[in-house]
Amino acid sequence: MMRRFHPLAAVGLSAALLVAAPAQAGKHERAESALSEAQAKIDAANKLGASGSVPRMQADAAAALRSARESLSRGKKDDAIAQAHQASHYADLALGEAQRSQAEAAQAQTGAAVAAAADAQEQAASAQQQAASAQADIAAANARASAAEQAAAAAQAQADAARAAPPQTTVTTVEETSRAASATTARRATPRRTVRTATRRTPVATKKTTTTVTTTQN
Predict the structure, then answer these.
(1) What per-residue confidence (pLDDT) applies to 168?
(2) Kind plus residue range of the DSSP H or E element containing 140
(3) Any transmembrane segments, and where (predicted)?
(4) What is the mean pLDDT of the chain?
(5) For residues 81 and 34, is the Cβ–Cβ distance under 8 A?
(6) Which of 24, 46, 131, 197 is the most buried (most CB within 10 A)?
(7) Three-state SS for 5?
(8) What separation in angstroms does the CA of 102 have from each of 48, 57, 61, 97, 154?
(9) Is the pLDDT score of 10 beyond 50?
(10) Lowest mean per-residue pLDDT among 37-41, 77-81, 177-181
(11) Which residues are bridge partners to 208 per DSSP?
């Protein structure tokens, strides 16, 4: 016995199919949009580099995105949308961590640059002080050399003047005085006394002069 479909039932089924088709199409588009958004976030996180916990977050995001694609290919649009949102969440975490790591690295580099600049300024100041000290030493050495040259020139001039001067003659006169014995005087006593002869010598002064001539060569 064959069943006959009522025309009204056929009309109702057609209407249900017409209403469900746009809804299914809308979910597919939402799933595709969620997949695209998740992929863009994962690509942005990958461009910032991987350090710390970022690689693990990137791997979780990539795995969730693959699951979402598989679900969409099997027609599981709701699962695909949920998994795509999960992939976006992991990508957001990876992106934030990567940005934080980059900010910390930039801050560290800035601190190192400031320290290097300060060290360079200190070295430059020290080099300037050393250069000034070296210049002072050079000036003092030049002054000593100039004084030595002047002293040598003065000594040379004195030597030249001494060679050109005539020899000096020194005359030394020595006078020697001596006394010679005088003649003997005899006295006679009276007849009543014994005659004694007394001799008295009166020295006679004599002078002797000695002259010495000394010639000194310059």
Answers:
(1) 64
(2) helix 77-164
(3) none
(4) 76
(5) yes
(6) 46
(7) coil
(8) 8, 16, 20, 9, 77
(9) no
(10) 177-181
(11) 176
DSSP E strand stretches across the chain:
168-180, 204-216
Mean pLDDT of 3-32: 55
Domain boundaries, the chain: 18-112
- Token pair recorded at residue 199: 């001799």
Question: What's the pLDDT at 210?
Answer: 65
Comparing 179 with 83, the larger pLDDT belongs to 83
Asked whether 83 and 68 are in contact (CB, 8 A), the reply is yes
Which whole number is the average pLDDT over 37-49?
A: 87
If we measure between CA atoms, which residue out of 155, 156, 170, 157 comes closest to residue 217? 170
- Distance of alpha carbon 34 from alpha carbon 46, whole angstroms: 18
Three-state helix/strand/coil letters over 50-85: CCCCHHHHHHHHHHHHHHHHHHHHCCCHHHHHHHHH
- Asked if residues 205 and 182 have their Cβ atoms less than 8 Å apart, the reply is no
Strands 204-216 and 168-180 come out as antiparallel
Count of alpha carbons within 13 Å of 121, Cβ hemisphere only? 6
Cα–Cα distances in Å, from 207 out to 150, 176, 213? 55, 6, 20
